[in-house]
Amino acid sequence: KTLCASGFHAPERGKIEILDEVLIDIGADGTIAAMHRPSDPNYRTIREAREESGELVTLPVGSYLLPGFVDLHVHAPQYPQLGSALDVPLEVWLQKYTFPLEARYRDLAFAKRSYGLLVDDMLANGTTTALYFATVHQDATRSLADICLEKGQRALIGKVAMDNADECPDYYRDATPDDAIEGTRALIDYINTHPENGEKRVLPVITPRFVPSCTDATLEGLGALARECGCHVQTHCSESDWAHGYVLSRYGVTDTEALDRFGLLGRRTVLAHANFLTDHDMDKVREREAAVAHCPLSNVYFANAVFPLKAALDKGVHVGLGTDISGGPSASMLENCRGAILMSRALESGVDPNRDADARASYGPAQIDFRDAFYIATAGGGVALDLPIGQFTPGYLFDAIVIDTKAPKGSVRLFDEFDSGEQILQKIINTASKPNIATAWVGGTNLRLP
Ligand code: GUN
Ligand code: FE
Predict the structure, then answer these.
(1) Which of 94, 214, 292 to mutate to test the pocket of ligand 1 (most atoms within 8 A of CB)?
(2) Domain Amidohydrolase-related: where (predicted)?
């Protein structure tokens, strides 16, 4: 198969490549076998040959190919409360709304219905890869893996580990460290031996919810498991002033330092939020080549701080973008791109009450634009996950979406007289919506979007 497409990708931070009628050869294994640009000497010949053999699919004028979005932080079970329960601080929100909702996933029929609706919505929003927190439950979490495989979304899925009786209610937690650790191992085995998962489209993730919700025995056991299996690890890190303060008072060190001591900070670790990282923490995250999932909309409601995205990117920290459903009230990565840009502008103006003038001076200007937002929503997420996704480069998996700027119910308006080049991407990032997302591929397979 060969696709002839115009579009955009950001193979590295700060670099947008404009694709203009590029031919993309997609191999049988779902990776990009080759790319041919009009400037290549043999472009015409190849194009004619592909046309003759009937292998060429050409995108219509006004349609633009982008890498599929990589959502680096999603709580799958929280989808039923998306857009609600936003009125209280994190520690109250967990007990009042979120734990009672997540506890309902002991009912497998409810889990399947909710997860089916979520994955459909994610795909319709152009999210071809998601890093999911599920719940503590084995059966419901397995059903999320089944549903992603059935619907074709690339997914990384963790059974949530949470066994600390001081912070987690009796009706919703792992009863013992053994339940947390062996339950995690059982989910890893289920995903790795799933008969439909030959191409490893779904991967298992070690998922201590956050330090407060876990006992030392669980954190130690999960660190050992991470070393043993080499899987991804995800957790929340220094999210709010309460969460950050909790870890400081329990261990006398920051979340980053504590996670590192438990062996949970490695190349395949994704730290959600990371709003209160110290300079030293930031250096450690970079040194370990771990990643941050930036969740700009959720942070407005629950963080009491603004993540210094530009400073992290400038330092070379791996950063991707996350919706944090349902802490963030949108399943749309485009809306989160806008959130990232808006919050960076607010930080530039000095609105963060938790950072004094000296601290602001230490990370310098904060403003980012659509280029960085697009990067963290695509290639940055791929780098964070250590997976060959998020950009159009030979050898990478063909995970892509089409933005139809002429979709009648869409929200992008292009004017031929004014709009060309990068400005088209800028308008897509700033104004596109679900009706503009025409189709998606994951691993070279075209998905029928809901
Ligand atoms: N910290 C611990 N659990 C959660 C959660 O579900 N959402 C967010 N945003 N933060 C958390
Ligand atoms: Fe979260």
Answers:
(1) 94
(2) 64-445
